[in-house]
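Researcher: Here's a chain I'd like modeled. Treat it as a single chain, no partners, no ligands.
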Amino acid sequence: MLTYKNLFLSYRKDTSDKAQQYLTGLLKKDLRKNAEVIASAVPDASVQNLQQFISDSSWLYQPVMNQTALNVNELLGDSENAALIIDESGIPKKGKMSVGVARQYLGCIGKTDNGQVGVYSALCNGTNVSLINTRLYLPEEWTNDPDRCDKAYIPDDKRGFKTKDQHAIDLIDDAIALGLRFKTVEADAGYGKGLGFMLAIETRAKEFMVDVHVDQRIYLKKPKPYIPARKATRGRTPTEYQIDETAIRVDALVKNIPAQKWKRIQLRDSSKGPLIYEVYCKRVYVWQPEMKDKPLQWWLVVRRNAETKDDYKYSFSNAPTDTTVEYMAMRQGQRYWIEHAFEVAKGDCGLDHYEVRGWNGWHRHMTLVMMAQFFLLQEKLLHKKEYPLLSARDIMELLAIFLPQKERTPESIIIEMKSRHRKREASIASARKKFT
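Model: Modeled as a single isolated chain. Structure tokens:
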């Protein structure tokens, strides 16, 4: 907590003790990570104080999140090897009042359902990774409803609608502004639906590796954009560029790749053995009308299952022309590690366990989860030589012995039970009023 000194001030009152209690709860093994359950397990913690700390106190979450990003950067930051990985994660939620909740696609369950979606960034170096920043996605049904935004306490400057791509660019800009050290930005095909996201990264002088869909179109020869000549004396003068060259889909290209052009590459060891793919890289051209007369040449990186010759993945990269296939394969496969970061954040640190409705509550919970994940990463690296396979779960098993436990007595359990009953009665009474 030393690097977070003075960041947990609420109306000039130091609430770092509440932060410590909440973090202790997040690091407890097999515990539901919300204020009520944390208060039942952590000494000196109370439900009321923790709920107030998360939802109603005035400490600012972004400076705390920034400090965590800087701390992770000290461990993993590297201008040649580290990557900033962007991904989204959905959390199913019932009801209509939780901030940002709507019927939308939730990747965690693979379908459209009621829930919240956050766009996240993680810093990754090799097999080490940690979440460092997030943006809550607000669907238009929220941004078009001021009253709903008021009830969720969404700040005025956060109510404008932004696509997930725009949130992702904001996360990249935050990382650059903080001076985080990374070479590549990586993202899945959700951010490769068009060229806009990748063009935005290129204007920021960063390398990228972004997955694209099978229907992404490419040019094998450099297109020659032009503005058509005016065909008649009447009508508007053409102003938009067009091309005569024919584009092909990326999945059409791979049908004609000779077998000897595929390179067999082992990405990493996994629990099921070496992870081996066949990889093919080719310089191709990309263009869309907004690019005017400036088509670009990027790498198309394709991989497939080495044994079954299927399960294709396609990616674009603006890496230099002399980049090796091995490097491309490593970068394309590196996005896996943000999925690992989500597994730790959800399975161990309770990223999806919160029971808050408002804007501040959601962001503060996420901030403290990232602090907890940073601690686990720090401990893992500290003991790497002695225990090279040390996992977050292993560390939490050890913490279960050393973290303080609240003494449980029949009297304390009855007090907690009565408190829950009072809340339940209040909820029932509130529900009845809606129907009277």
